[in-house]
Amino acid sequence: MAPKVKKGKMSRKQNQKPIANKHEINDDGFSSAGESDEDRQFGVNLGDFHESNVEEDDYNDDSGESDDDNGDDIEEALEGEDGGDQSRKRKHSEAENGSDVSSSKKNKKNKSSADLKKPPTAQEVARLRETENLFHSNIFRLQIEEMLKETSIKQKRLASFSEWFTSLKDSLTTMTKGEKHEIMDQKWLKDLGVKIPIAQTPYPLKGVFQFFPPKSVFVTGSYSIGCSLGPNLKVDIAIEMPPECFQGSDNLNQRYLRKRALYLCQIVAHLKTAGLISTEEDLGPHFELPRAFNPLLPVAVVVPVGSLKKHTQVFLHVTASEEAFKMTKFGPSKNSIRSNWYFNEEKTDENNSATPLQNATIVSDLVAKRNEDFKLKLLQDSKNAKDGIILLKVWLKQRELDQGLSAFGSHLMTMLVVYLLHSRKISSHMSSYQVARTVWNFLKECDWTVHGRGLSLCDKPPIGAPGLSEFHDHYPVVFVDVTGYYNLAAHMDVASFKRIQNESTLAIHYLDNTSVNSFQVLFMKPVPFYQHFDHILCFYDMKSLQQMNDKKSSKDSKLDKSQHSLRLSADLLFEVLQRGLGKRVAEWGIHAPEKLSWKIKKSPPVPSGPLLLGMKLDTEHAYSILDKGPPADLPEAHEFRKFWGEKSELRRFQDGSISEAVVWLPGKDVSLSERRVVNKVITEYLLENKLGLNTSNCLAYLADQLEEVLTLSHVKPPFAYGSGEEAALGVLAALDRLSVELRGLPDLPLDISGVQGSSAVCRFADVFPPLSSLEYVGQKVTNPDQHCLLLGSGLKYSEAPVWISPVEVVLQLSLSGKWPDDAQAVRRVRAAFNIKIANSLRKECGLTTQAFPNYVDVIKEGYVFRLRVAYQREPALLRQLVLPDGMMTTVDCKEAQSLEKETIHAPKLTSYLHGLHQQQPAFGPATCLAKRWLSAQMIRWAHFPEEAVELLMAYIFVSPEPFPAPAQPQAAFMRFLHLLSTTNWHLEPIILNFNNKLSKTTVSEIEKKFSSERVQLPTLFIATPSEHEYSVWTKAAPSLLILARVAILAAESLKVLQGWYLAGMLFESNVWKQIFRPSLDSYDLIIHLNSCANPRRFQCIDSKVDGFVQNLPVYQKTTKEKIPVVGFDPVQCYLQELEAAYSEYALFFHDIYGGSVIGVVWKPSALEPKEFKVAHLFGRKLQGKNSNQSLVLNQEALIEDFYILGQGLVKFIDSKNK
Amino acid sequence: MFLENCSEFVYGCADLVPVLFRDCVHDYIFIVPAIELKFRPESVVCHTIFVKQHLVRERHPEKPCDRTLFIFNIPPYCTEESLKHAWRDCGPVASVFFHSTPNAGIPKVNESQFFPIHAEVKGFKVAYVVFETEEGLEKALKWNQTLFLSSSEEPILCGVKKWMEEYNSKIPNVEMMQSEIDKFMADYDKKVAAQIANDKEAGEEDADGWITVTKRGRHAGFARTESSNKRKLAQEDKKRSKKQLLNIYSFQVREAKMKKLMNLRQKFEEDKKKIQVLKQVRKFRPF
User: Fold this and answer.
1) % of chain A with per-residue pLDDT over 90
2) Quick check: ipTM above 0.85?
3) What region holds the RRM domain (chain B) (predicted)?
4) Between A and B, how many CB-CB pairs are < 8 A?
5) Residue pLDDT, tens place only, A181-206
6) What gap in Å lies between CA B22 and CA A1188, rounded to an integer?
7) Is the pLDDT of residue A110 over 70?
8) Residues B255, A44: C-beta atoms closer than 8 Å
9) Is the pLDDT at A630 greater than 50, yes or no?
10) Which residues contact A1113 (CB under 8 A, 6 or more apart)?
11) Considering CB atoms only, which of A73, A831, A1197 is closest to B177?
12) Does B209 contact A at CB distance below 8 Å?
């Protein structure tokens, strides 16, 4: 599509070089399209309008209205008396006089189409062209505008704030000079009622503190440039300490920081009495650490009085004027804490090591004013850049990147935009969208962690200022400010910067990828930390981390960072873990969810944790059970051995090389679920051996805990079971071999050309895959028949044989024209085929088989396969109906639908999902988790089809935006819960674009159809490449009621998991398990079942294992082999009967995986008394006397019916109403 | 729909529980006897069934009006045998028919045991009990005692036992199935052959020189289906549209451009509408 290419080219150009003016762009757009003069006169260059996300040209061609109008016009032009002349005249007149000849001539009744036809006004053209040139697409622009509106602060509030600020400023600048105090003498603080907000270690410190009124008070941060994010207003105010406050060597030994804290106390104490701020218990002034959690830089938070109270917070930062100190003293390699003071040593150490973090802490205050001024100057009149900053801030905030230990805060983001403006990479003509895009592109390409690639805002560094390389030597990430002394990114670590880069790359990817709704993904969807990462290390015991800091960090880093203990711990952990895990982890993240804030009367608290580290796995390397080191004869080998110690061993590899290697798990019999958490083994080893942490009581490694619900408790198969993937693989391998045998069968009238599995197990989505042994099937309760075991009615029937599910397989036969043309005849022919196949398999391959009218059951390697012959035309034949006049027509029927599902849609679904699992091996177990959860909440597949669950989970993997695709089932499961709880199914169709098989046009057609025919479509609409019109899998269910209930359940479960992840509560016990235990409160009746009669009794969540675990032997065929009792589940039979008879009056809930109760909810509509009408007679009884008799639900009789229908299964029924 | 086309018969007995029944369509008032129905004598609770003589215009020989009792609200587990048994005190019952809704005909019976076409009636249903004598019906209409469905001599099979039986009976006897299939297919083949012969015959010229066009024969017509009709029409449309030239007159060119602009604007309007919808559900508040 030509216009699209052009657009792409243009935007790339804009990103590379700043565009001098807008005019140039317009010219460019015009000339390249090369249209005739006529069009210019017309005022529209149509090609130019084509926006990138407008679908192909024919998008609207089939929309009836516009077509018809066009047709009318042509006819009019042809037959009208003024025909050709008139139209030619019209052409000239149109551009000049706005009156639209064609529309005036047109039929007036259709006014909206007339509106569409009038010639464009200059304004409209300008806007449309602007959209084309400066924005992603029209809808994107509209959305951005709406969002900016939503996030802006109300004008009224701004006005009352500036009024309040003036009085604050007056009050502060007119404060009186204080008395002189020794720094160590802090008795005067007691009278003020404020405790000093920093930890004073070591306490002894010489020096004098005297309060002078601030030199200046100014608004800084986002408020000053008008980029505050609403709806609540947060304002940063800087209060500059005058130079008189300081003496000669105040730059040393944190004397500045202590004075600063004392100054802040004074200010707060003054404000408390000045009547400008609220002093109520919960709104009163308190201290916080908003600046990257740096405990040396406390900030006072106050709430103004008056109307501002509800929605405003003011952050008071104390800074110092630049001239107070010589800036050169705070270069990165300078020392500002003497170690003899800090460690209280006798001897004076000449070589005081550099303290970059301390220096940056102090200098950040000194440069505040200069940076503020610079920022204001550059951003002064570029509204769009400011809007761009807001967009970027929203983007950061949704990703939780703007807060915390290594925050890419809004100040840093603003300075980055300022840098790009300054270096003319952003021009003031760019739109907000382009600003954001440029920033992302810049971040994506520019690595500030590499030596020499850091940024500097300072064009001419002053004499004596440190060079860029000096910064790089001392800070991992470098972005030097306008003064040349301060590293704006001093607090960041490499991992966090890489995360920013990855997110930027993703952002650009979403913008370029038209199939993603990029606006939603970039700005609207939150990306919480715990959903983003696959594995999360939760350090909940801060004391052990403190001990680790004391023991393992060097003296130099202690001197610099020990007061910022979180930072120090994080650095230590990162250093060891990154080295040890290497390529296994694609992305790291750090998160300290606790927000430190304390009342002014309290001393600053010690961080109580937890500290979280997140790992995004690199699926290529993360599952390997061995780390290969360098060859033994290289010098690196020594280093490798030194790092790993005894763990490292020499190994000979298959390619003949002899290398150092570390082995994490024994080579044989390792399940895939164990492989997924190799990182856990490594991490624990590293933390224990390298950092001396006792992982069992300080670390929770959150990765695979939930998978426990997928394990087997009552039997032990002869292989590592894990979370069941191996068992599924076993089934598939057996199916493969069976398929070879089937294809090779001789003497069948038609050859078998295709064998496709269609059970959930073939797509790795069966919670409990069938196992390859039939030994353990209860022989006590069965009688042998010719080929099958029958249920022994003479025996004690209360015990059901253990559940065996058949594996459904669809057989495709080679083409033939000899099939009959009648559905009933086709059915017989299929049955005849079944008999033939069964006999042939028995004779040729020696398998145990039994033919049924609709399928063949076969035992292959201990699995029962259920083969169904598919005939493509059969559904169509079933639908055929001959009208009396001989015309053939089609009528949809249930049989045809279910047959189509079974033989056409299910195999396709299976192949798609099987393929997805091959690409994303976490898909299978994640789906099993989701199914297990949904079922545990007593939602039955009849309410929420299992295929729908699978497809929704597939959606998490196929369209993971705004996350990268998950690699750990547990992470995927949490996103699944999030999807269920937050999506508005009425407005959003789920479009599963497997392997991008759906073209852009089809996708937009689906969307269009969805919005226009919403009411007729199922409540949950899922489109796949093979079926995107009717959403077959969700047609009958789920209903709106069930969807709403599921959404509530998901939200609650997610809350539990989130609390478990983030709040660090009760790690040792299985808090998470409660999300698999349903609440029975909401049911009117509870039917308790005889657990013996439930064939899946061993699968239930809290199944009691009484010490007896049966070892399953490897399957061996015996001569007496019979097909066991397959697919016989009395509970399901019972539920089907209940559903068939009573679905009008009640809903039935049950956990298919061993649930021992059935929950019943009466439908409210059924409980109401009804008028005596035919339609209401069923299941009701009479109430009342002669004249006002009415019908009410005969509940007692129905409950009795439940007993009757479930004889032998129902233990008792609990009724709440009684 | 109830009371089979609303014939104006009123049945009722003074000593029964009288029930006012208001037919919503015709606004007649009927009195219908209500009878208690228990599963077995020990049961505490009961269903209420409503009975009436079967009276309709459309007659069926299997359901003679003077011997047939029509019963409403039969519980799901009830079988024909048990109903016969329950009414035995009124007289011998000839047959019982179940329907999900009132029906003048008789239920369709599956010819084949292996390939059923008609599903059995599930859930609450209506029943037609045909007594052997007219007295049976008269007695039944005056009945005022509780009926019992299941008893020791005629137990209803329910629950696990029933499902086990169902499972066992699903395993077919393959030889019988094969022979049934062979028979059916032989009949089918005969039918098809006869059809072909018939078609061929019709395809020949008759005495007046007319030929009936069928699928087969020398002059085969195309299949008479809806889809083929549509295809034919679509083809003709396509042919017609090919004949038109779209860029001959300047008004055509101009109109094409106009159309493009219109599309663009329409898209813009659609986008605006979309935004409006999203706005209503507060889609633009990021946090």
Assistant:
1) 22
2) no
3) 68-159
4) 263
5) 877 777 878 888 888 888 877 777 77
6) 12
7) no
8) no
9) yes
10) A718, A773, A775
11) A831
12) no
